[in-house]
């Protein structure tokens, strides 16, 4: 995709996500800053913040768990190198709220490589978001779980491990697909 394509997809993704009832009524949303070829999230983060939503962004800990910080605009992000310097992420500057801060979220926006017809998400393999989902389950809270992807990343099947949890919806530039039927594992 060209840079213009990426920007157009990010704008379409933000419009679709902002129209979700789960985000329309949210007071706190846990999200992430896209990296590399991931669908762009900056427009969505800024739009949520402009609505008065408290946006939490992750900071990767040495054990691959995630602490959270409050997003205060693009200028509040700082580059952080991880994996021996192999990976640079944009993380929130300022106070770290700890891993349990995600349990305050009304919705959690999850990155992924793909989502299948059952609502199962394939991540990058680091386990960070598996820990987030397990933390939410242990806390007995049920925020809306939404994955942001490109259209071609919604597939028929992804591998499923016993610890994997289905998501509620996937948002792509062209639409929203919801899960939760009998075959979803939800």
End-to-end C-alpha gap? 34 Å
Principal-axis shape: globular
Which structural class should the secondary elements be placed in?
A: alpha/beta
The average pLDDT score comes to: 90
The helix count comes to 4
Beta-strand fraction estimate:
25-35%
The biggest sheet, with number of strands, parallel, antiparallel or mixed sense and barrel status, is:
7 strands, mixed
Strand order of the largest sheet: 3-2-1-6-9-11-12
Helix content: 10-25%
Order of helices and strands: HHEHEEEEEEEHEEEE
Nearest-angstrom radius of gyration? 15 Å
GO molecular function: 5-formyltetrahydrofolate cyclo-ligase activity; ATP binding; metal ion binding
Family: Belongs to the 5-formyltetrahydrofolate cyclo-ligase family.
Organism: Streptomyces sp. R17
Keywords: ATP-binding, Ligase, Magnesium, Metal-binding, Nucleotide-binding
Describe the structure.
By secondary structure, this protein is of the alpha/beta class. It is built from four helices and twelve strands. The protein has helices at 3-18, 21-24, 42-50, 128-138; strands at residues 28-30, 54-60, 66-70, 77-82, 87-92, 107-110, 114-116, 121-122, 144-148, 154-155, 169-172, 175-178. Helix 3 links the parallel strand 1 (28-30) and strand 2 (54-60). Helix 1 (3-18) packs parallel to helix 3 (42-50). The longest helix is centred in the N-terminal third of the chain and has 16 residues, at 3-18. The chain is globular and about 40 Å long.
């Amino acid at each position: 995709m060209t840079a213009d394509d990426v920007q157009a997809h990010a704008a379409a993704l933000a419009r679709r996500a902002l129209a979700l009832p789960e985000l329309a009524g949210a007071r706190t949303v846990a999200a992430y800053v896209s990296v590399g070829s991931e669908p762009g999230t900056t427009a969505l983060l800024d739009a949520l913040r402009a609505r008065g939503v408290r946006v939490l962004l992750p900071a990767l800990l040495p054990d691959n768990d995630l602490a959270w910080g409050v997003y205060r605009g693009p200028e509040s992000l700082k580059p952080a190198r991880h994996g021996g310097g192999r990976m640079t992420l944009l993380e929130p500057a300022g106070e770290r709220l700890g891993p349990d801060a995600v349990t305050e979220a009304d919705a959690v926006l999850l990155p992924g490589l793909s989502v299948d017809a059952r609502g199962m998400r394939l991540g990058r393999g680091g386990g960070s978001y598996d820990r987030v989902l397990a933390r939410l389950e242990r806390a007995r809270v049920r925020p809306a779980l939404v994955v942001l992807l490109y259209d071609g990343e919604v597939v028929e099947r992804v591998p499923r491990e016993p610890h994997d949890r289905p998501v509620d919806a996937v948002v792509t530039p062209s639409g929203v697909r919801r899960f939760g039927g009998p075959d979803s594992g939800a």
